[in-house]
């Protein structure tokens, strides 16, 4: 009996990349597998584990087979202070290559653990392309995790394959992305710079694409009803298997205790007592506001703005006449006195609430007072906003965010573009400053009562309903997960039987 159970029990290792925006969705995915009796070990470093460990402890207490295995990050070996082991908003540029060096040093230890922990399959972030070879040596499947949308990956493939940006005469001239289900227009400046001007990152992305083709398949935090055309298109152009398991935050965090654990994660800089007071303070403020009356403004865990841009945002928010909640991160070394005065003023009028640093976003977005969101189009925030049935004002900056804007504004029609014109490197700022009039115009459409505004919000609510159906028994994501687990069980039995 014990041998039979051993043969049928699936053991998995999940390896998130060392960045909050990559860690959170992949850990939620790992928790879904554990909910369905797959024995799960998450490999990460000690500091990064603090981001999600409360959630793992809760799941373990429920009897789910999940745990974290912490690796000691070799900070001193690569010349980093203790505790600096992640790519986040406060990571200095000179530290980035050192973190990559630390990851390279950890690679043999991770490979060894794949074998020691007797993994039947591994799920690794796209930024670990070497793991496909490690899995092949052990004769087990490697599944790649993408932290983006199906549209974004399809659009990137179109840009790289057809190179439409070479066929226009200027940086601002629009062109259509060829071969996609929708007619999506972009400009040269909105395409990632590493595509336009090849560099080391271009080579890394090529290696990642090659490793995906040799993987068993890929996982996305998305669901069929959200981007069905691109779900089908992507699998066709890549020629690989893929499963949308989203929305993972909605599925993995259904209990109040889950949401509270996620809201209290170690990413916050405040002491826990102070953090709890801040959380309850912002939620108490929201509870005092009418339904759908508050605009939420957040640019994710990876972005800061210079003072010039913060001033424009502040003035647009104040002029809009809407109540607002703004998660603020200012650029290091810049004068924040304007914002402090602004905060005093909006606090006195009870029109605005500023959160400095990290915010309990899941709890905020699901609050009935929130009527819309201004977002950087990071995929985690997009999915959480879709879950909550919120329309979005889109302000993309880097990575695949301009592609996600196309999904929201042009394909799904649940977004209004603020009008950002230029893709920029992470942690860098170009000359572009989005003016308060542009911001105000987008806010007016997002929060307004006109036909277009009402229709946009109706579509967002419909997608929210579809998201909830996708994770229920018989729903698209639920079915995908069960089918994938069944496939992986069959592969394990074939391996045991020497096939």
From TrEMBL:
Keywords: Glycosyltransferase, Transferase. Signal peptide: none annotated. The keyword ATP-binding does not apply. GO terms for molecular function: UDP-glucosyltransferase activity. Pfam families: UDPGT. SUPFAM superfamilies: UDP-Glycosyltransferase/glycogen phosphorylase. Belongs to the UDP-glycosyltransferase family. PANTHER family: GLYCOSYLTRANSFERASE. This is Glycosyltransferase.
